[in-house]
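Q: Fold this one first, please.
A: Sequence and structure below.
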Amino acid sequence: MTLFSKSLSHSDRTQKLSIPIDWLGSLLPSIEQNSEATISVVERNGAEYCFVLRTRNRPHLKPVFQSHGWLQFVRARQLQVDDTVYFWKERRGNEDIIGVQVRDRPNITFLMGHAIAFN
C-alpha cells in the first residue's frame, strides 16, 4: 500500500479535485470511461465524507472528485491553495477504507501491505 498526496491548485479548491490517473486501480477503483462511483473517505477523527469519482471518455479519462462532496470537505477543513491532502487505503475489520488527512503528513507505516496508523 502507498500513501498518496496532492497539493491543491486553485481549481482543486474551488471546483473539483483532479485525480492523478495512476490512483485508479491502486487507491481508487478502476471505473469505466465516462462513468462515476461514490467513494467514502474517513478522517482520523472518524468524520466521513462521500466523494463522487468521475471519468471522461478516452483518450483522456481525467478522473476527478466532483464538486458536491469534495467542496463540502474543502469548506469543512478550510483548505487553501497549496495545502496537501493525503489519502491511503487501510483495512478495518473486514473492509478496506480510504483514509484522508490534510496539511500534516499522517504517521502511517505499511506492514505486509496493510496501513498501520500511529497517533
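Q: Good. Now the second chain.
A: Here it is, same layout.
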Amino acid sequence: IQKDLVKALKDGEISDIIYGTLTRHIVELGNIQAGCDRIAGTPLPYSYSVLLHRAVYCFCFILPFSLEAALGIWTPLIVGLIAYMFLGLDALSAQIEEPFGLQENDLPLDSIVRLIERESLSSLGQPLPPIIEAQDNNLL
C-alpha cells in the first residue's frame, strides 16, 4: 500500500497532505493488526486454565454442604442452578480465548470486513459487493 501511495504522490494524484494522512492511517492499521496478532497468538496459560477448572469444580462440590442448613430441601435445586452458571462461565472462558476463529461464537470478521469494504467503495463511487447474509442466524 505504501508503494502505491508513493507512486500516487509522485504522479501528482494525491497531495503531500493527503499522503501524510494516509501514511498515518496505514501505520495505525499495522499497529492494530499487530495487536490482533498478539491476541490471537497468546493463549491462556495452561496452569491458569487448570486452576480455573479445578476451582470451579471444588466450589461446586463444596457449595451444597455450606448451603444445606439454610436451604434445606431446596439445596439440590439451588446448587444445581449455581453450578450450571459457574460451569457455563468456565466453558465460555474457553470460547472467548480464541475470538478470531471460524466457530459460531467467534467474531464475524468476514462480515465486518465486507461492511468496511462496502463503505470504502461507496465513498469512492465504485460498485458494491453483496452483503454477507446470515446463515442459520450466524455471520462468519
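Q: Anything worth noting on the second one?
A: The longest helix spans residues 16-41.
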